Amino acid sequence: MRTAPAGTVSSSLSSDEIARVDREHLWHPYARIGGDPAPLVVAQAHGTRLVLADGRELVDAMSSWWAAIHGYRHPALDAAAAEQLRSMSHVMFGGLTHEPAARLGALLVELTGMDTVFFCDSGSVSVEVAVKTVLQYQRAVGRPERRKLLTPRGGYYGDTFTPMSLCDPVGGMHSEWTGVLAEQVFAPRPPAAFDPAWDREVREIAAKHAHELAGIIAEPVVQGAGGMRMYDPRCLTTLREVADEHGLLLVFDEIATGFGRTGELFAHQHSAHQHSAAGHSAGVRPDVMCVGKALTGGYMTLAAVLSRREIAEAIDASGAGALLHGPTFMANPLACRVAVAAVELLLASDWRGEVARIEAALERGLAPAGELAGVREVRVLGAIGVVELERPADLARATATAVEHGVWLRPFGKLVYTMPPYISSQADLDQICAAIRAVATEECRSVG
């Protein structure tokens, strides 16, 4: 390491020094400090490739946790960031506004059909704000006793406290916090094929708890980190009808599914292709909606909560007089400017065709894994491919196997899955599928 003044850190570190600092001081998600396997040191990224410090290149099958849909170092996004830096990287949003926020807000309103936009720092914070919006609305209309949300089991909404309370308390990622978190009301997991029995049970649960329910929250069509399950869009119609019947607000968490990932721009739009017996469209519109992750193309953290105008007007007219939330970096100009570029880039592309191409490649490439003893199910929707094992994968072994095949994967629990960037080539997709098949084969062999 270069000599540096006392109290400073050198401007550059060797890969060994990075690994040492990481091992001794840095926490990673759901991992011990200094635990195994040791994180790989990434030196740079471009296109669909992660370049390791030792020179190896890995195809990124994860889009950096589903966010980098355009890949890395995209010229349009790099240019947007550089341009914004020449005017301002940040300014407080309290009492001030700016063009990037206005442009992004107008774009989101146009795309979603919602009316108001509240910018947040992250997806988890957006769920916090969405729930706060629901609770404040119920207070504003004279129902302060309504403090709980109804949500399907199998969901995942983030790692801060309110989102954790909405995640499945049985076998979910946050069971450690049972007894500490607020208690919500849970409905059965939405079925892959619509089931009238599920519909009846949801309606019965909602009727039983209506006096204490403020809203309903769901990940539309695909449940993400809670299990990567796909379900029938007609379930959303049930949730909409239940919300309307009992005076509840319906919240859709599109943080993982938004911006084309499932084959529709937003996952709840799949419901528009379902039709009632009378032949009318059963498209479902939420009252509140969260977006994030791919919003900036994975360049930086930003999320937003969108809602109908009458909700905002009711809150504004209440004693509180405003939605009681205000992050320091709310509507960060740099993030908003890159988000505008990322969304415009998506809309200017044949994103629907690209996602359909990825879906077809994943269906072909992952299907053979379904023949393995020890694989429970293979499922694909849009640019999402999942191989569910009978038993949890060994993370260290699975990671090593994928890296040997030149691919970066991050399995969790029983799931070996991919959400690749939309720019992934056929060769990339073939390599990703080969790596997933190899991981599944190795994991099944170790069990057998």
Automatic annotation (TrEMBL):
What's the catalysed reaction? (8S)-8-amino-7-oxononanoate + S-adenosyl-L-methionine = S-adenosyl-4-methylsulfanyl-2-oxobutanoate + (7R,8S)-7,8-diammoniononanoate
- Summarize where substrate binds, as residue positions: 65, 156, 293, 326, 410
Assembly and interaction partners: Homodimer.
Binding-site positions, pyridoxal 5'-phosphate? 123-124, 253, 327-328
One GO cellular component term noted in the UniProt record for this chain: cytoplasm
Name its co-factor(s).
Answer: pyridoxal 5'-phosphate
Instruction: Locate the transmembrane regions by residue number.
Output: none
Gene responsible for this protein: bioA
Its annotated pathway? Cofactor biosynthesis; biotin biosynthesis; 7,8-diaminononanoate from 8-amino-7-oxononanoate (SAM route): step 1/1
Protein family according to the UniProt entry: Belongs to the class-III pyridoxal-phosphate-dependent aminotransferase family. BioA subfamily.
Q: Which UniProt keywords apply?
A: Aminotransferase, Biotin biosynthesis, Cytoplasm, Pyridoxal phosphate, S-adenosyl-L-methionine, Transferase
Primary site of residence: cytoplasm
User: What protein name does the entry list?
Assistant: Adenosylmethionine-8-amino-7-oxononanoate aminotransferase
> Which species is listed as the source?
Segniliparus rugosus (strain ATCC BAA-974 / DSM 45345 / CCUG 50838 / CIP 108380 / JCM 13579 / CDC 945)
One of the GO biological process terms = biotin biosynthetic process
